[in-house]
Structures are given as C-alpha cells and as structure tokens.
Amino acid sequence: MEPNDFVDDFAAIDQHGNTVTLSEMLIDGPVVLFFYPKAMTGGCTAESCHFRNLRAEFARFGAQPVGISADSTAQQAEFDEANSLGFPLLSDPDRRIAAQFGVKRPGPLWNRRKTFVIDQEHRVFEEIGSELNMEIHADHALEALERLSSFAQG
After folding, report:
1. What is the tens place of the pLDDT at every residue in 79-130?
2. pLDDT confidence band for 153 (50 / 70 / 90)
3. Which of 44, 66, 97, 134 is catalytic?
4. CA-to-CA distance for 154 and 148, rounded, in angstroms?
5. Do the bridges between strand 19-21 and strand 64-69 make them parallel or antiparallel, or are there none, so unpaired?
6. Are 67 and 86 in contact (CB under 8 A)?
7. Mean pLDDT across the chain, nearest whole number?
8. Which of 9, 14, 47, 141 is buried most, with the most CB atoms less than 10 Å from its CB?
9. 54: nearest Cα among 26, 34, 27
10. What is the C-alpha to C-alpha distance for residues 133 and 114, in angstroms, rounded to an integer?
11. Residue 44: active-site member
C-alpha cells in the first residue's frame, strides 16, 4: 500500500474481543493504522506509548490510532492494560491484513513496522516506515493529518 491506494474494508478482533471493521472506525474520522511486530517488546512498547502520549493531538484531527499485530487478543489486552494505551489493538494472527498492506514478512518472521494514515474515503493518505525510530510513526502521522486537514478545508 502506498499513498492514494484504496484500502479494502477488513474486519479484526480487538483486545476486548469485539469485531471491528475499517469502515466502522472511519465513520468518526481518519484512522492511523500502525503495524508493530510484537506486543510487550521494548520497541513496540515505546512506539505504542508515544501514540498514547499524543492522544490529544490525534483527537484534535478527529483521528484515532489503531495498533495491529499478529498477537492474540489476550496478548493485545495484556499489552493495553500494562501500558494504559486506550485505543484499539487489533489481532491479525493469520497476518491476512498485514499481507493486504504489504508488511507481512515471509515465514514466521514478525511483520514490518509501518504506519498508514487512512482518510475517510478509504484511501492511504500517508505511509510511514521505520524499524528503528519509534517516535517517527506518530510524529509523521500527525504531520500528515495536519496536511489532510488543510486539504479538507481548502
């Protein structure tokens, strides 16, 4: 997936056991979908907590961060509770959604760390990738949301 690509709807189970769809999440505003390799690891915790710490900035644009990994819903719930994340964490155990977005690595390797800003028309507005800089995902997503907001107003 890259900017301007249409994102087909998908469904996944969140950390609370609820089935959610991309279409449902987009009703309230843009979705910042960030793929992380493995819950409860140092890098993924730092990345997810940075999204949590910027919650008010995302809300200013009507956007919500949504984390996704191949972890089970139980692992996602533990990750959320341990870090007070407060946003949806989706379980993609068969890595079907990861494959849809082109972040699935071959075999048993964890998914790539990538973030996609998805507008309410189901289009990728921005793609952010870095395996090592844990803050760049949320920071660049906010910059993209600022641009998206400017386009919508202009």
Report:
1. 999 999 999 999 999 999 999 999 998 887 788 999 999 999 999 999 999 9
2. low
3. 44
4. 10
5. unpaired
6. no
7. 95
8. 141
9. 34
10. 11
11. yes
First to last CA, the chain: 26
- pLDDT higher than threshold 70 for residue 152: no
- Rounded (10°) angle between helices 73-83 and 42-53: 60
Report whether 55 contacts 87 (CB < 8 A): yes
Exposed e or buried b per residue across 99-134, where buried means at least 16 C-beta atoms within 10 angstroms of its C-beta: eebebbeeeeebbbbbbbbbbbeeebbbbbeeeeeb
Contact 122, 10 (CB under 8 A): no
Domains of the chain and CATH, by start: 11-153 (3.40.30.10)
Q: Could you tell me the CA-to-CA distances from 2 to 21, 112, 117, 126 in Å, in that order? A: 20, 15, 10, 7
The position carrying tokens 């973030």 is 115
Q: What gap in Å lies between CA 93 and CA 34, rounded to an integer?
A: 15
Note the pTM of the prediction, 2 decimals.
0.96
Distance between CA 38 and CA 84 in Å, rounded?
Answer: 17
